[in-house]
From TrEMBL, chain A:
<dbReference type="Pfam" id="PF01956">
    <property type="entry name" value="EMC3_TMCO1"/>
</dbReference>
<dbReference type="InterPro" id="IPR008568">
    <property type="entry name" value="EMC3"/>
</dbReference>
<keyword id="KW-0812">Transmembrane</keyword>
<dbReference type="InterPro" id="IPR002809">
    <property type="entry name" value="EMC3/TMCO1"/>
</dbReference>
<feature type="transmembrane region" description="Helical">
    <location>
        <begin position="120"/>
        <end position="144"/>
    </location>
</feature>
<dbReference type="GO" id="GO:0072546">
    <property type="term" value="C:EMC complex"/>
</dbReference>
<feature type="transmembrane region" description="Helical">
    <location>
        <begin position="14"/>
        <end position="33"/>
    </location>
</feature>
<keyword id="KW-0472">Membrane</keyword>
<protein>
    <recommendedName>
        <fullName>ER membrane protein complex subunit 3</fullName>
    </recommendedName>
</protein>
UniProtKB/TrEMBL annotation, chain B:
<comment type="function">
    <text>Part of the endoplasmic reticulum membrane protein complex (EMC) that enables the energy-independent insertion into endoplasmic reticulum membranes of newly synthesized membrane proteins.</text>
</comment>
<dbReference type="GO" id="GO:0072546">
    <property type="term" value="C:EMC complex"/>
</dbReference>
<protein>
    <recommendedName>
        <fullName>ER membrane protein complex subunit 2</fullName>
    </recommendedName>
</protein>
<keyword id="KW-0256">Endoplasmic reticulum</keyword>
<comment type="subunit">
    <text>Component of the ER membrane protein complex (EMC).</text>
</comment>
<feature type="domain" description="EMC2 TPR-like">
    <location>
        <begin position="154"/>
        <end position="263"/>
    </location>
</feature>
<keyword id="KW-0802">TPR repeat</keyword>
<dbReference type="InterPro" id="IPR011990">
    <property type="entry name" value="TPR-like_helical_dom_sf"/>
</dbReference>
<keyword id="KW-0677">Repeat</keyword>
């Protein structure tokens, strides 16, 4: 019977508590190490320029009606002409900017490696350490029953089907700590800590889906260009005189 | 022009000591002013600290005034005052320099600042340069330099210090060294342009700004600055182009419409005058009729458009009503705010009306 299993208090003192403590300490250490190794990204001028072009074109699209027709046409031509317009992307260029960037910019690969190293090395080491010292312990018991499916989650390292599922093996405790301490870390280290691996992975994945790192500049430029082509210029100012008159009349009456 | 000040000060703030007393005074008299902060905090993105000018809300303004008074009377609260200034991106150099230095000279107060200490050092260093207290500024910079030996921001401060001293060559050397390391640092580009401007080398400033805008073309403070410089060089068409950019970015800002209208009016010609009047009307509309310059502008346009030189081509009937309305609003305002000048203003307006109606 599972209820017969009594856990030694020594296990609590020498397995459960140290394991949790070590996990927390390692997390804190990793935070500071990765903070030390982090280099501030240095955006290259071309990318900055592309972003700014897109921004300016967007402003033109939004505010087109506030400038005279001639000024608008002039700007539109400047952005959209097929030879050297700012938004015009020559064919074949920017096919896969991400890869090209990776190849030309070793610091980027370096950065990624640093991040990965700071993530993988401590994890491997702690896992080896836990495996070596604490394998095979039943370290804790959770106070509610669970179905068999949780066995692989909670009793990793114990190949006994007769033990009740609510007992937690030491290796599983390690995993629970590894994934469950994020809340505690964001509490003690602030929101932006290096521990949030999963979150970061999600972010990079999202970025990948959106095309390259962040966004594909060529695509953004093309979209702006199409948008700008569609803008109908309708100068808003001719009506401003009537509106100004009504404003002034109102002012005089009060 | 009232609006251009913010950028101006940020630009030329620490270059020379002479005019800075004035800049402090003007900052007090103005309630709202956009100010491009030359210094960004490390954690901040560019968008937060650069592109969008900081506007000061009425509540914060009041709080700031209260704190300033308290600080001036020696009632404490210096730390809060400095923090609020940083938050609002204001630059009241005289007060900051005196009281900030006192704060930094007290070891107990220093330790209380915690991690804010270095930001305060930076703030006080800039304020000291503004009031030409170069030795004090140097001390602050040295303190920062020992703490952050390879820092970009400290390097910038050193460059500014040379600038404040007037050693342009040394400053230029510092800036270009930093720029090779980090070519996308907008502040450094701006400092170099400001330096050219401070030396009176307007063509170099224009060149620098154009080159800067080629890359950072969504930096609307820079467009504003360029418009100013072009205006000072009497290159109105170029300035008008810059104002068009500004209107595109901030279509609801009455001051940009006003500035554009003024440039068009200055360029002259019946078409430009007609457009100018439209933009003056837009400025009136957007400011709710509160902007005197726009009101006067409408009257002036009316007078100028009817001058014999251009009258032959006035095909459409220009509405006289706007002009008379603007004139009566001007009169009303003068009667309320400055009754002694009513006679003078009314005679001017009458003359203009005669011109417009003639």
């Amino acid at each position: 019977m599972a209820n017969d299993l009594v856990l030694d208090t020594q296990i609590r003192d020498w397995v459960l508590a140290p394991l949790s403590l070590v996990m927390v300490l390692i997390g804190v250490l990793r935070h500071f190490v990765s903070k030390m190794m982090r280099t501030t990204p240095n955006p290259d001028l071309k990318a900055v320029k592309e972003g700014q072009v897109v921004l300016r074109a967007r402003f033109l699209k939004a505010g087109a009606n506030y400038i005279p027709a001639r000024s608008f046409q002039m700007r539109k031509l400047y952005y959209n002409n097929e030879e050297n317009g700012l938004l015009h992307v020559p064919k074949g260029q920017g096919a896969n900017p991400m890869q090209a960037q990776m190849l030309s910019d070793p610091t980027m690969a370096m950065d990624m490696m640093k991040k990965n190293l700071s993530m993988i090395i401590p994890q491997t080491l702690t896992f080896a350490w836990v495996n070596f010292f604490f394998s095979g312990f039943v370290a804790a018991k959770i106070p509610f029953p669970l179905t068999q499916r949780f066995r692989s989650m909670l009793q990793n390292g114990i190949d006994l089907s007769s033990v009740d599922v609510s007992y937690v093996s030491s290796r599983s405790w390690y995993f629970l700590n590894l994934f469950g301490l994020r809340g505690l870390f964001s509490l003690i280290l602030g929101e932006e800590n290096a521990i949030d691996d999963t979150q970061r992975m999600m972010q990079t994945q999202m970025a990948m889906q959106m095309g390259g790192f962040g966004s594909d500049p060529a695509k953004a430029l093309g979209a702006e260009k199409d948008g700008l082509d569609l803008v109908q210029h309708d100068w808003a100012l001719p009506k401003s005189e009537q509106r100004a008159e009504s404003v002034l009349r109102h002012l005089l009456q009060t | 022009m009232r609006l251009c000040r913010g950028f101006h000060e940020a630009f030329s703030g620490s270059t020379r000591s002479g005019h800075l007393g004035r800049s402090h005074k003007t900052s007090q008299s103005r309630s709202v002013r956009p100010l491009l902060q030359v210094f960004e905090l490390p954690g901040r993105t560019r968008e937060e600290s650069g592109a969008v000018p900081a506007m000061v809300g009425a509540n914060e303004e009041r709080e700031l005034e209260r704190l300033e008074k308290q600080v001036e009377e020696g009632g404490g609260g210096v730390v809060e005052y400095l923090a609020l200034l940083r938050k609002l991106k204001q630059r009241r150099s005289t007060v900051v320099a005196t009281h900030g230095l006192q704060l930094l000279n007290k070891p107990s107060a220093r330790s209380k600042l915690g991690s804010d200490l270095w930001t305060v050092y930076e703030q006080v260093a800039i304020a000291c340069m503004d009031v030409h207290a170069l030795d004090a500024a140097k001390k602050c910079i040295n303190a920062l330099d020992t703490k952050f030996p390879d820092s970009m921001r400290v390097g910038r401060l050193e460059g500014m210090w040379y600038e404040a001293k007037g050693s342009w060559h040394k400053a230029e050397k510092v800036y270009s060294n930093l720029l090779t390391e980090n070519p996308s640092d907008t502040v450094l580009h701006k400092r170099r342009i400001a330096m050219a401007k401070a030396q009176g080398n307007m063509t170099a400033a224009v060149e620098g700004l154009n080159k800067y805008l080629e890359t950072f073309m969504a930096d609307y403070d820079a467009w504003r600055e360029l418009a100013d410089i072009y205006t000072s060089l009497l290159m109105y068409k170029q300035a008008a182009f810059c104002f068009e950019e500004l209107i595109l970015a901030h279509p609801t800002n009455a001051l940009y419409h006003l500035g554009y209208a003024e440039l068009l009016y200055t360029i002259g010609g019946i078409d430009n005058l007609r457009t100018a009047r439209k933009y003056y009307s837009a400025a009136i509309e957007l400011s709710g009729g509160q902007n005197m310059r726009a009101l006067y502008g409408v009257c002036l346009c009316g007078a100028a458009m009817n001058q014999p030189k251009s009258r032959g081509r006035t095909e459409e009937k220009e509405s006289q009503e706007l002009i008379s309305l603007a004139a009566s609003v001007i009169m009303k305002e003068y009667k309320e705010k400055a009754p002694s000048k009513v006679g003078l203003v009314s005679s001017i307006l009458d003359k203009q009306k005669q011109l417009a109606a003639a």
